[in-house]
Amino acid sequence: MARKISEVQSQLKQSLPGIRWVSREGLHFTLKFLGAVREEKIVPIVDALQEVVPATPRFSIVGRGIGVFPDIRRARVLWVGLAAEPLAPLAMKVEKALEPVGFAPEKRSFRPHLTIGRWRNFDGERELLQREIERWRQYDFGETWVEEVVLFQSIVKPEGAVYSPLQVIPLGQQTTALQCKM
């Protein structure tokens, strides 16, 4: 999936100026954005995540199509859509687990995506952007496995965010069983 995203980014660079592109190594999706977090909250966050993340088996995720947030008139984020059956339930479990730690539930609905680029101020041609979105709307970026949840610290710099992992929590193992009915 990451290779195909890089290939599409290269093509889009020609037609969509003014975007800061996310590097292949920086691609990730967010289950819950926590904002500024005091250091003493890290352990309770990790403990809460340890309660729910391992209960979800590893799963595959599919990338399909591109779009923008918040909308075509005020484009700030260019994204690749993501689909996987366990993704929304996992996000909901994380949401509920972090509520007692002091994080309010997200008001917006969960929209799984990979951010592939950001505009500081979109000042391009909306018609051109709309054509590119239509061109890539059903593009299949492929499939990859999700094996862990990472609690990241994000440091915003002029050239983009730098992510440092604070804790890695593996998803549960896929299991197969033979059962005999008597």
Would you give an account of this structure?
By secondary structure, this protein is an alpha+beta fold. The chain has a single domain (2-170), classed as Cyclic phosphodiesterase (Cyclic Phosphodiesterase, Chain: A, Alpha-Beta Complex), CATH 3.90.1140.10. It contains four helices and seven strands, in the order αβαββαβαβββ. The strands form two sheets. Strands 1-4-3-2-5 form a five-stranded antiparallel beta sheet. It has a two-stranded antiparallel sheet with strand order 6-7. Helix 2 (42-52) packs across helix 3 (87-98). The mean pLDDT is 90.
List keywords for this structure.
two-stranded antiparallel sheet, 31% strand, Cyclic Phosphodiesterase, Chain: A, 182 residues, alpha+beta, 7 strands
List the helices and strands and how they pair.
Elements: H1 2-15, E1 19-21, H2 42-52, E2 59-69, E3 77-83, H3 87-98, E4 113-119, H4 126-136, E5 140-146, E6 148-157, E7 160-170
Antiparallel strand pairs: 1-4, 2-3, 2-5, 3-4, 6-7
Helix pairs in contact: 2-3
Number of strands: 7
How can the largest sheet be summarized? Answer: 5 strands, antiparallel
Oligomer, anyone? Answer: single chain
Q: Estimate the mean pLDDT confidence.
A: 90
Low-confidence segments, given as residue ranges, are: none
List the strand order in the largest sheet. Answer: 1-4-3-2-5
- The termini sit apart by 44 Å
The CATH superfamily appears as: Cyclic phosphodiesterase
What fraction, in percent, of the residue positions are helical? 25-40%
Strand residue content = 25-35%
SS summary, helix count:
4
Q: Write down the secondary-structure element order.
A: HEHEEHEHEEE
